Amino acid sequence: MCPIPQQPNHTVKPPQAVFSSEVSIEETLKSNFLPNNIFAFPPNRDTLGGTSYFIVGNESNILIDCPALDQTNQDFLRSHSGVRYLFITHRGAIGKAAEFQQTFNCEILIQEQEAYLLPRLTVTTFAHEYTLNNTAQVIWTPGHSPGSSCLYYSELGGVLFSGRHLVPNQQGDAVPLRTAKTFHWNRQIKSVRFLLERFTPETLQYICPGANTGFLRGKRFIDQAYQRLASFL
């Protein structure tokens, strides 16, 4: 009697809260931040394993880079009142941005040098900085790609969503990573210095990277972000 072949497991993991179990009650009470307001999606094959994030806010919900466009993710986003902004940190994170805009009627935000990669779409571009609301601002940090940018979220002592501009190394430190596809390494190093000049240990406490998240060994953020970044230079 032949055994019945097992069906492949197509279970899709849902997004996970980034800070839910790591943030102390004291830190939560010091601000209006709620620890389950930021979510990380599983790595997306469409963006070469990139990690996307979702900020649920009182003013507007922000999706950072494109997660997989599967039913699980769509249902999750709808359960949190959809997407107001889709911010693309770099050209490699575009994924199915057109489909996301069509599905959620969201505003796509991308640095002006990479907007040409989204033809026939309605996009908002920026040169150096763009403020989304009173807690979120995007910052141009070129180097990894011409339009590589980060999103800074001011709650919880400062959270930087770094795309592929800064990723964890094997020690879990935040570093720029030089690859064959790096657009301009010297500009990328200059962008790191710019972030260190702009922020302080008190205003930049966490980094949520857009790649290499396996090196975080179960955590979903890099803590002591400013100090770790400063130690690289």
UniProtKB/TrEMBL annotation:
InterPro entries: Metallo-B-lactamas, RibonucZ/Hydroxyglut_hydro. Gene3D superfamilies: Ribonuclease Z/Hydroxyacylglutathione hydrolase-like. Signal peptide: none annotated. It comes from the Bacteria. Residues 49-211 form the Metallo-beta-lactamase domain. Coiled coil: none annotated. This is MBL fold metallo-hydrolase.
